[in-house]
Design a protein that fits this description.
The structure is a homodimer.
Chain A (H helix, E strand, L loop, with lengths): L2 H16 L4 E4 L5 E4 L2 E2 L6 H7 L7 E5 L2 E5 L7 H5 L5 H8 L3 E3 L19 H11 L11 H14 L4 H25 L5 H14 L3 E2 L4 E3 L19 E6 L1 E2 L8 E6 L6 H20 L6 H19 L6 H6 L57 E4 L2 E3 L2 H4 L2 H6 L6 H5 L6 E3 L2 E5 L4 E3 L8 H7 L1
Chain lengths: ~450, ~450
């Protein structure tokens, strides 16, 4: 039996050890774009992918006692003309180690008392409710047996087996190549869009897709900037948050920030080195048992300390973090889970990210923290500290008032050429510490300059 | 007033001249991919784009008497952190020449007796039904006032105004660059995916998107092949059907077929020249008043004639077309409407493609014809003849039986290195004939070889 099938069977067995209800998971269908046949690229539900292993459109699996039953229709004869020969149900069943395989119509009699997770594709979500003949709450608010299932899946997917880690490594490798070529291409580029095209072109060339909408921008202070029309100008920093996803669905998530002109200015380098210090110290502090929230607060403290040393913040770093002054410049969390989803299992709301009985803080410095659990061997998380000058934050009159004496606004004005810097790596928690999966992509400012 | 706004106001006026019912059109929302916040790129409904002019997510327009009312919410204050400063409702209203603008909640009291078209995005489609408080049939089967509206929109969108043609030209220009760079990159590429990455990278570099899922394949005989994993081998033909879409939503659609090794073999060139002859003769024959179906049949006859000359088919070309023998090798239509959608208005089923009271033929050679109308000045259509050796067709025992004496199967076997060839251009019907919008991309085999 292949390692692939062995792993899949182990995942199914482990689920059976956690819950004894039958489980039915739908893969979903590709939504249409501007007309029915013009569809977005299909992406199977991650929970389906975890147990089925490969991407299959309009398929269903039923899991019980560690066994997997596959429900999928053989391709219609006329589909061969348009889509070529595609594997039969039986061939697919063999590839994924299904115990039995049936056409979709045979699912209905096997649905009694089954738990499920609502998929994102609305057409399939409605089908789920029709076939199970009961309301299914959205995946971020599952109820009763569906909640039990979601919790069991979280338990499994929180830490990764070797096959999963191998997939993430594959994805990381391609993302690193995209970033390196992106850096090199910047000298000849005149717009953000050109660098994005080069980077995503690399990902496509490896027959992978993007795990999320790429951010490639000289306005890094817009955290989820997905526009690419700005011209590149000497003196700008380019922030690129771009990650590949393998064909089996596993993600990577990397951010680098590099100077458009190939050299950081003194002010850019000062801030860059603070963000890098936070990045390095956070990774250094990670090991099983350590609270991720403490890693976040450590990153915040190092950023605060660095900004005190530069004269941008005033006071004691610990006190500044306690009053969330760091969040003026670092308003997001230090990272998140990574796996089949770039924010792994975020479809389940905070069920995966937050340990039972923990909830999001309403503190300005903590509300966007996506992960609040003790680290465990086999987890993969991102570490992505940043520094941003967000006008909506820094020009907010209430905040200016509150932090009036903590910020040296004149000093800050000298750093106007630093709009946004983020350095993001993917980190595997090992039994003794960590392994930085993205280690082959440099982080040091001097090395970044060499790659540009 | 800008030409852009003038054109939009003309479109709204023309609609008012055709129908006097109020019209409400939704732009839609981006569907989610694997979790809610990880979304596919947003694409506004084409009917919305036609009258509103620009892409606006979660927006509604109400058209009556040539006036446009815009309904859209101002961005939430917290969205500035994640998405930056975005234009206010009033700024958007000025850009698109809206007569009045309101928040979304003010739509409800203005919905009485309004017609609409169901959008592809299911969440919005449900909202349409809730807000209009009546069932809305899917866009390919509109009923009553919605059918009246759809027919009026077809009347307008069938022929393009100057702004629309300018947009298609922009899109064409980028697609041509993508094809040229794709051809040049093939010598160094080892997989289909690499050429695809290069071509789509060019489109992205111009801050455009793909109008449809790219086909870049050495298996051109799979008509809608959207896999890219095959290696490129000397002797293969690479078929690339790749088209850009402008930011305002206007499409282009170009196919070229080139030799991986830079030189067509004698057999490939023989077939290539037949497909090209069909392409050239079809375009030559086009002018206002000519039936597109006749253009299709002309293409079929030239392919049949060419195959007779090569000794692959036997008999009289006209008779061969009459019995659909050409369709063994050219099993799709000669082309389709092009505009805001790559198959323009295909969301309305055959309402746009087929003249009133005409319906799809069940003839093997005609069933996939997407357009059956007399040509008119201002229409843009594709002309895309092809030759394919589709195993599902050629190995079908009924067809082999039926066409046993029409095909010289031994002769055909000599052309095994021609799996699929298609040559596709975008053609504007003018008052006196045509203008090939894609003229800057060569079609001659020798010129293609020079670009490789």
């Amino acid at each position: 039996m292949s390692l692939f099938i062995t792993t899949l069977k182990q995942r199914r067995q482990k689920l059976a050890q956690l819950i004894d209800i039958p489980v039915i998971l739908w893969s979903g269908k590709a939504p249409s774009r501007n007309f029915r046949a013009n569809r977005y690229p299909f992406r199977a539900s991650s929970h389906f992918l975890y147990f089925a292993g490969i991407s299959l459109e309009n398929a269903v699996i039923r899991l019980e006692n560690g066994q997997l039953e596959l429900f999928i229709d053989d391709p219609a004869p006329e589909s061969t003309l348009w889509h070529g020969e595609t594997p039969t149900r039986d061939a697919i069943a063999a590839i994924i180690g299904a115990d039995r395989a049936y056409p979709l119509e045979e699912l209905l009699p096997k649905t009694a008392h089954a738990a499920t997770i609502g998929v994102q594709d609305l057409a399939t979500y409605q089908q789920q409710q029709n076939i199970l003949n009961r309301p299914i709450f959205p995946s971020n608010a599952p109820k009763e047996i569906d909640l039990t299932l979601a919790q069991a899946i979280v338990t499994l997917r929180l830490t990764h087996d070797q096959e999963a880690i191998a997939q993430i490594r594959k994805s990381v490798k391609v993302s690193i190549e995209a970033h390196k070529i992106g850096m090199k291409s910047t000298a000849l580029a005149t717009t953000e869009a050109q660098v994005r095209g080069t980077m995503e072109g690399v990902i496509m060339a490896h027959n992978m897709s993007c795990a999320y909408g790429s951010i490639v921008t000289v306005h890094g202070e817009v955290l989820h900037n997905e526009e690419y029309h700005h011209p590149l100008q000497q003196g700008d920093l380019l922030l690129a948050d771009v990650g590949a996803e393998t064909q089996l669905g596993w993600a990577s998530d990397i951010t680098r920030t590099w100077p458009v002109g190939g050299k950081f200015s003194a002010t850019q380098r000062d801030i860059y080195d603070i963000v890098l210090a936070a990045h390095d110290n956070c990774i250094e502090a990670m090991k099983p048992g350590v609270e991720y929230r403490e890693i976040h607060l450590l990153g915040a403290r190092i950023i605060a300390e660095g900004l005190v040393n530069l004269g941008i913040l005033r006071g004691n770093p610990d006190n500044l973090v306690e009053k969330d002054a760091h969040a003026l410049f670092f308003p997001h969390g230090i990272g998140h889970l990574l796996g089949l989803d770039v924010h792994d299992m975020e479809d389940l709301g905070d069920l995966a990210g937050y340990e039972t009985r923990r909830h999001r803080s309403d503190r300005f410095g903590l509300e966007y923290l996506r992960l609040d659990r003790p680290l465990a061997s086999g987890m993969v998380v991102t570490i992505e500290p940043g520094f941003y000058q967000v006008p909506a934050i820094l020009n907010d009159s209430q905040r200016r008032e509150k932090y009036q004496n903590d910020v040296n606004w004149e000093k800050l004005a000298q750093f106007a050429d630093v709009r946004g810097i983020r350095i993001e790596d993917d980190v595997l928690v090992t039994e003794t510490g960590t392994e930085v999966l993205t280690i082959d992509l440099p982080t040091q400012a001097t090395e970044i300059e060499r790659l540009c």
